[in-house]
Amino acid sequence: MSRAFNFNAGPAALPESVLLKAQKELLNFNGTGMSVMELSHRSKEYEEVHNGAISLLRKLLNIPDDYEVLFLQGGASLQFSMVPLNLLTEGKTGYYVLSGSWSEKALKEAKKVGKTVVVASSKDDTYKYIPELNADDIKEDAAYLHITSNNTIYGTQWKSFPDVDVPLIADMSSDILCRPLDINKFGLIYAGAQKNLGPSGVTVVIVKKSLVSESLDHLPTMLNYQTYIKNNSLYNTPPTLAIYLLKLVLEWVESEGGLEVLEKRNNEKAKILYDVIDESNGFYQGHAREDSRSNMNVTFTLPDQEKSAEFLKLAKENGFVGLNGHRSVGGCRASIYNAVPVEHVEKLAQFMKSFKNR
Amino acid sequence: MSRAFNFNAGPAALPESVLLKAQKELLNFNGTGMSVMELSHRSKEYEEVHNGAISLLRKLLNIPDDYEVLFLQGGASLQFSMVPLNLLTEGKTGYYVLSGSWSEKALKEAKKVGKTVVVASSKDDTYKYIPELNADDIKEDAAYLHITSNNTIYGTQWKSFPDVDVPLIADMSSDILCRPLDINKFGLIYAGAQKNLGPSGVTVVIVKKSLVSESLDHLPTMLNYQTYIKNNSLYNTPPTLAIYLLKLVLEWVESEGGLEVLEKRNNEKAKILYDVIDESNGFYQGHAREDSRSNMNVTFTLPDQEKSAEFLKLAKENGFVGLNGHRSVGGCRASIYNAVPVEHVEKLAQFMKSFKNR
Questions:
Q1: Cβ(A215)–Cβ(B71) under 8 Å?
Q2: What are the sequence ranges of the domains in chain B?
Q3: Coarse DSSP helix, strand, coil percentages of chain A, rounded to the nearest 5 percent
Q4: For domain B258-357, which architecture applies?
Q5: How far is A224 from A215, CA to CA, in rounded Å?
């Protein structure tokens, strides 16, 4: 059986070589006679996996020493609460940029914790673009500025990150590792794994140590970043299998040549599809404004609902998976994360062209 | 390579047939051409896994219709906070039985939320037994009574559950599915998966619906049980791979004959080891008092530290994994969860006898 043409928005395609390696050693990890998921999280063998994943992420993203790499559970959805619970202290304000539904959810959770301000938004234009930010609007009471680096539903992405004097917090769930980053620009980055990092069930947090140094013992222990920092993310049993798979994905990223290579490839993959859209004489309409186009999620509509339905039906029959757009936007979406091969993107481009020409 | 003699306390041994099935379909789940971890959590294929796991757990534990089965993340450690955040309302008191370190941690988190009372404890006697509970000590202000059904570190286990007029909350992380249960006795049961249920990374909650019907919108969305109830545990991306493996483990439990069969086998396995201890003329000393002995974790010490170290070293050389006792008790611990084969327990018993006779 050949691999499906998987354009799922997340959980999403993983590198075939990662799956093959996981399959090969599933019953016998590293000569232990046990599966990696049967190892104690306090064992030497597991600690090598755990610390190996941290080191590799540090290397690939060039993470400075004054930042911690943490593994948590609960996805970005739990981070929506943990960020304000840890950072939005009395008298401070959390500044939010609304660039999509996930930003809105992050804001909703922050409002339960403290004072918030929406400093920029493209909501009124169905989130077609990344709104422009006026750094002067961020006042001295700011605890942080929160952004969503890539918006899966709308297919938009920040091309460069704002220069601000307050800690910049970014939800990078859907585009972490799609390109190199200057970590120093950020106070805290969080990402659910299920797009570019691995399977669902582990959340990566990269945080500047000085940002979370205050004692917050009143918080639930599991919602306090310090718990994870003090215990190397081993306060309780971590999701060991998910972290192992994350490590395999990071090894794959390294073997492909690192983030510069992936960024180039991602831009090429995205261009293949955007070119089909732009050269279709309006048959395919991109949802995102050109300057905000994502290289991870390509969103588009067809002339009418009927054509869309026909396209999706035929695409499915031709083995393309996950092309339905999110219900809030409609139309179609092709998610082309790191692990989606160029060849699959080319197949989709061909299919789009031939569908148009029918 | 043959399977290790895995006596890890958790993450722990899983059934070999489960691992073989997971291995076989790791790159192609159910003819999809995708790994189960590459499926969208909104797809028909994944929903069958998700709902199949819920149905099977309902069947095996005979869970009544007025209870919900939920999948969460964060382990028992997050439940320590979620239970009081959802149930310990203003003016109420959380009653706790202390039977080990995990009970203490649960109490610690509840104290951050509201009023608590320790209604019974065996702490002064290094948690050698399950303390006796006087139901009259639980007053009308009780929000609930919290117990830990099995104490991995000390090797003790509740043999029957208390009859009380308030919601009984049980942390069953280390012995759920070791025996049949009368779910009606409980208000809420929670369990991290990494002992009898599957890999780490998913937490099962079984809760009586009427107990969590009050609106609690001020809570972080991800800490509100209602979020999981309203969305069939699909509010955000669940840990799909861990839930899939949980389903395979549940299928294995069913194929073995269900919980009556497993209870009988677990008692037999435990008896093999306790007999070696009891017939060793004091060479091996059980930590747990006889009436509180666990059928999941057998804890014992040797005449002195030196002998213990020698035993553990030789055991390791003979392929036994995970026999070190927890640092707070010392000595040795054999965790014999559902998936540990009788033959491995017999091997260990033989080893213990021959070590004594050297």
A1: no
A2: 16-256, 258-357
A3: 40, 15, 40
A4: Alpha-Beta Complex (3.90)
A5: 9
* pLDDT tens-digit readout, B283-318: 999 999 999 999 999 999 999 999 999 999 999 999
Closest CA to A228 of B9, B218, A219, B198: A219
pLDDT above 90 covers what percent of chain B? Answer: 97
Answer yes or no: do A4 and B112 touch at CB < 8 A: no
The answer to whether B322 contacts chain A (CB < 8 Å) is: yes
As a whole number of angstroms, the distance between CA A44 and CA A53 comes to: 14
Strands A168-171 and A142-148 come out as: parallel
Fold type of domain B16-256: Aspartate Aminotransferase; domain 2 (3.40.640)
Query: What's the sign of the alpha-carbon dihedral A22, A28, A34, A39?
Result: negative
Residue identified by tokens 């996805």 is A75
Partners of residue A239 in chain B, C-beta under 8 Å: 73, 199-201, 239, 242
Reported ipTM: the value is 0.98
Return the DSSP state at A326. Answer: P
- Strand bridging mode A188-192 / A203-208: antiparallel
Q: Is B328 on the interface with A (CB under 8 A)?
A: no
Tens digits of per-residue pLDDT, A35-49? Answer: 999 999 999 999 999
Q: How far apart are CA A323 and CA A69, in angstroms?
A: 33
Adjacent-strand bridge partners of B68? B207
Q: Ramachandran region of residue B91, left (φ > 0), alpha (ψ -120 to 50) or beta? A: left
Q: Would you call B11 helix, strand, or coil by DSSP?
A: coil
How far apart (Å, rounded) are the C-alpha atoms in residues B165 and A322?
A: 50
